[in-house]
Design a protein that fits this description.
The longest helix is centred in the first third of the chain and has 20 residues, at about 35-55. With about 290 residues, the chain is an alpha/beta fold. Strand 7 (about 150-155), helix 6 and strand 8 (about 175-180) form a beta-alpha-beta unit. It is about 45% helix and about 15% strand. Helix 1 (about 15-25) crosses helix 2 and helix 7 crosses helix 10.
Length: about 290
């Protein structure tokens, strides 16, 4: 089966980025969210990103217009019914994802692939909620999607070879490098990344260094392009906390215990860039 039309459920940072790269690769895209405002915000972000590419000479104004024209904004799940593949990119919560997958399984045509952009939750568990577990797979894009080259491809226990191959081919088509890994909590990327971020939060919590000092040491000493606390702000502190909780519960190891300071920031609504404040303050003049 060829994949020419995809749906993206969730028009936020990740979903918008997935829609962006798919449309830029020539695919027809249905971008879905629960309200016109959320879908509109996602399209605006894509438009700004494409406008920067035009300014840098990477795209023409005509290219930008054509890419945006390939993205259909929708608030009705029924609009996804004829898609060849649907990617779920909602919040990192099993309960929310479970509800979405049950609905899209009923809505999207038989034989279509259902992919989850989860960064830690069991693909097997999600697939078991559907009538097509052999057509369910993890397709974990990295943030920011238009820039980062990796897509983790995670097969559930029932995922078919054909489904995995089609998703690998799609990742290559949209300019990404697919790397397959097994369905364990956090997969590879976040099983390695989140303990590092968590330890950086512990360093801040215990007064070992300021946020700026911790990030500078990792950037200059380990050649990281971004410090772990700034990266946590970019990912979203609520997402980091959710992933650590999945790791702790799924692997049963106390080394994944989220730092109390991370919990406190999330309780305060300091979620990072998306809320204007996390380990750093964002906005005009900051």
């Amino acid at each position: 089966m060829g994949i020419d039309r995809i749906g993206v459920v969730g028009a936020g940072q990740m979903g918008g980025g997935i829609a962006h790269v798919a449309a830029q690769a020539g695919l027809s895209v249905v971008l879905h969210d629960v309200s016109d405002a959320l879908v509109g915000r996602g399209l605006e972000t894509i438009g700004r990103s494409l406008a920067r590419a035009v300014e840098k000479g990477k795209l023409t104004p005509e290219d930008r217009a054509a890419i945006l024209a390939r993205i259909e904004p929708q608030t009705r799940l029924g609009a996804l019914s004829d898609c060849d593949l649907v990617v779920e990119a909602v919040v990192e919560s099993f309960e929310v994802k479970a509800q979405v997958f049950r609905e899209i399984d009923r809505t999207v045509r038989a034989g279509a692939i259902l992919a989850t952009n989860t960064s830690s939750i069991s693909v097997t568990r999600i697939a078991a909620l559907t009538e097509r577990p052999e057509r369910v797979i993890g397709m974990h894009f990295m943030n920011p999607v238009p820039v980062m080259k990796l897509v983790e491809v995670i097969r559930g226990l029932a995922t078919s070879d054909a489904t995995a191959q089609e998703v690998r081919d799609l990742a290559l088509r949209v300019g990404k490098t697919p790397v397959e890994c097994r369905d364990f909590p956090g997969f590879v990327s976040n099983r390695v990344l989140m303990p590092m971020i968590n330890e950086a939060v512990y360093c801040l919590h215990e007064g070992v260094g300021t946020a700026e000092a911790i990030d500078t040491i990792l950037k200059l000493g380990m050649n990281h392009p971004m410090g772990p606390l700034a990266l946590a702000d970019l990912i979203g502190l609520d997402t980091c906390l959710a992933i650590l909780e999945v790791l702790q519960e799924g692997l049963g190891d106390p080394k994944y215990r989220p730092c109390p300071l991370l919990r406190k920031y999330v309780e305060a609504g300091w979620l990072g860039r998306k809320s204007g404040r996390g380990f750093y303050v964002y906005g005009p003049g900051s």
